[in-house]
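The following block was generated as part of the benchmark described in Methods. Ligand: 2-acetamido-2-deoxy-beta-D-glucopyranose.
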Amino acid sequence: MLLIIIIITNIVSTTYADHIICESIRNNTDNNDDDTFNIFNVGVTKTKILLITKQFFLFEIDIDSLNAYNDKLYLNAQPQSISKKYPYLWNYKRFQDIKDNIVDIRIFIDDEGEWLCFIPLLDYGIGYNLETGEIVELTWFVKVNVADEKSIGTNETYRNYVFRYRQSTNNNTKGIQLNKDTLMDRKVRNSKRVELMYIWANLCLYSENEIFITTYPCHKIGCETIDWGIQGGFVVKERFYLLGKDDVYSFPEKAYTNWTHRYRFDKQQYRSFIR
Ligand SMILES: *[C@@H]1O[C@H](CO)[C@@H](O)[C@H](O)[C@H]1NC(C)=O
Ligand SMILES: *[C@@H]1O[C@H](CO)[C@@H](O)[C@H](O)[C@H]1NC(C)=O
Ligand SMILES: *[C@@H]1O[C@H](CO)[C@@H](O)[C@H](O)[C@H]1NC(C)=O
Ligand SMILES: *[C@@H]1O[C@H](CO)[C@@H](O)[C@H](O)[C@H]1NC(C)=O
């Protein structure tokens, strides 16, 4: 009986906050005064999607909760604060030092495991081994990571997609560019750097519901640049999910691997994407 009461009390006391966080993600509004986007970024391990909010809450979602046929994310996980889930990381001095300057959160998979990496601007980041709880300092991002590059998580070993915004040469519109990067030395620990694998490619709007990825400026091939206000994203089950300010955009990963062919994209609001 006592156990039941304790359990019920726990449920009641956690659900209110959880409910607000889930709802605010669905609403895509921030609990803070500023109207910045709530999701910081998303990392992908071999089995999980880790969605991290700007208030350092973490949703650990099974990869199979993402249905790539109807583009829905069944959010059956409760958010947990990183301070509670990973107290060693949270209380680690270096984490506290960089916490307010983090510009990207991403997961690298290497031969030693899956590392949740926090990348601050112009400083060393840290990597947290999700299995062993080990923390390593990342001394490579300082040189190569620029402020406007953010990752798009994949389950690929050593690699992730990255995106940035570039001003169109044509007029004042800014457009999304995509690339992929890879860990040098095949490990997070002591890696010298992370390197871009290709040249930047432009994400262009081909028609109302089709995109086209090309290294040509979009306007040169009669397309428009795309500014979806992307904050982050992930690739799971061979589909891109790009997280915009109000909407989630999805399209086949093939659009990137099979350049110069157009692909259909879907756009939906968060309350439709997250179930
Ligand atoms: C979410 O949106 C609904 C309807 O607009 C609103 O009533 C509710 O307060 C919002 N919740 C949060 C946490 O922003
Ligand atoms: C910029 O160029 C695109 C075509 O490439 C056009 O659709 C858009 O309206 C232009 N925007 C402005 C502000 O001139
Ligand atoms: C990554 O995901 C793809 C597509 O879902 C799957 O085919 C592949 O086996 C996964 N790779 C790893 C290393 O888990
Ligand atoms: C690239 O796209 C074209 C047109 O959809 C298709 O015919 C071709 O098979 C694709 N190639 C690959 C490698 O997927």
